[in-house]
Each structure stands twice: as C-alpha cells, then as structure tokens.
Amino acid sequence: MSTDSPMTAAPAADNAPSTATQERQQLRGIFSIQEIRKVGTGTTQRKTIQKTYWFADELPNGEMQVQLLNSNYIPAGPKKAISMENFLEKYKPEPEFYVQTVFPRINELNKTLARAERHRKNGETFSAEYEFGNALKVDVENVRANFGLGLTYLERGAGDKAEDIFQRLVKLDAAFEQEHKHLFNEFGINLRKNKMIDQAVTYYNRALELEQRDENIHLNLARALVEKKNYPEAARNVLEALTINPSNETGRTFLEWLLKHEMLDSQQIAQARSILAQTVPASESSPAEMPAPPSDAEPSGSA
Q1: How far apart are CA 8 and CA 27, in angstroms?
Q2: SS3 sequence, 166-202?
Q3: Of 72, 180, 226, 293, which residue is the least packed, with the fewest Cβ within 10 Å?
Q4: Mapping DSSP to helix (H, G, I), strand (E, B) and coil, where does residue 79 land?
C-alpha cells in the first residue's frame, strides 16, 4: 500500500462546480467506524462501543475499497468494495492516527522486508528467514514476506517448510494480484525446479481461477504438466495461451516442440498447425532459455 499522503480530498460537494474534466485527488487514507455491540446476556447484557480502523482507497469506478487494520495497525486480510455513499456515511477520517501510529508501523515493516530481501539476494538464507519471520509476526498474511520466506526455504532445499508457505499462499487472493506478479512467478518456477510439481500445478491453477486471460500463466502451468507427463493438458494450456495471444513467441516455440515430439492428439494437431500458420507481429514475450521444453514465461503485465 502507498504510504504517501495520509489523507486526500473528499468528493466535491453537490453545489461545487461539476464538469467531466474537473480533477480532484483520489480519496485515500485511514478511516474508522464506531459500532455499538451487545455484550453478555440477560440482566448482565450491556452495550459497548467498538472502534475499528480501516485503510481505504478509491477505485477507478468510484467505489471505495476498504481493508481492516490488524492488531498491529497494519492493513491486512481481505479487501472489500463499498459504495461511495455508504463509505461517506459510515467512515470517519483519521489523519492524525495515520501519521502517529499507522505510518510508523508500515514504515518499520517495509524496512524489515527490505532487509530480508537483501539477505536473500545475497544468499544469506538464515538471516533472511529471521527477518521474514519478524515481518510475519506483524502481518501474518503479508504477501512479500510469505513469498520471500517460501523462496528462502526453496533455495535452501527445505521442502517441508516451503510446503507450509505454499499452503498459506494458495489461500491468499492477494498473492496473485498484479503488484506481486514478479514474486508470484519466481515462486512458481522454484516450486517446479525443486520437484514440487504437484504444488506448482495447484499453484498455477489457483492463479487461473483469479486471472484466466493471462497467457503466460497457462504456459507456466503447461511447463509443469510436461514434467508430470500430462501432455494432453499441457497442450491444451499452450493452445489456450496462443488463443489469448497468438504472437507469444514462447508459446509458439512451446507448441512447435510439442508437435515435434508428437504430444498432441489429432484435434490439437489441427489447431496447432492453424495457429502456427498464422503470420503474427513479433511478441515482447521473453525468449526460451532452453530448447525443450521452453522456459517459464513472465506473467502478463509484469515488470
């Protein structure tokens, strides 16, 4: 999440000038809700006021996306979208709370993650594990920390510990969001290279549940399916990738390899020849690292 401005402007009032080109800042910041709850039963029942804090961010469609702060005052857990009208009615801005409490916690978490990622990059896996663990104490669902710790375990050959992280990540929708695509891809490739093929297949299928139109997820799934010798499903995913983007060079190379090694059924052969016969513009997809089968592909839109 962005830690720039703690609070930005609310929508213009009804009597303000209204034009299609009028610009205003995106509504974003920390907000609170006060709810009255009943505690106890019978004669001991009493009402209490509970205050919860939320990170809120305006979506392009004009709705607000809100995420609850955890007990460490870090935005964590699922996000939900609500109407602007509902948001303005129920949520109260808390700019001072952001500056005094939330921003310092987020800043410290980001520093911990930066140290952890630096240790991992330098091959200092035990130091990386320690720092990623500290980050997870603050936010157990932090995507960067979970990916980083999982990659650290895979690089160290600690398959059992990596399995635990894998089980956590496949349940997190946020792990497959665009901002995490680079880590997402690296983790999937490392699962396969560490012979955790079933996990890699489950992982990529989970990603496709959330993003079916990413041709490179289909290609990476196909790469894992080849290792499982499930050639019909591998071919189906390569063909699906090229249906989405016929100019994907990695996909075309992969399809040629499958054809050459007679891994397609008769119907797939006809579809493959039709696709390969098409003249298409050059793709920006990464070239294959190895001739057979082609290497893992970067997810669409990744840096």
Answers
A1: 5
A2: HHHHCCCHHHHCHHHHHHHHHHHHHHHHCCCHHHHHH
A3: 72
A4: strand
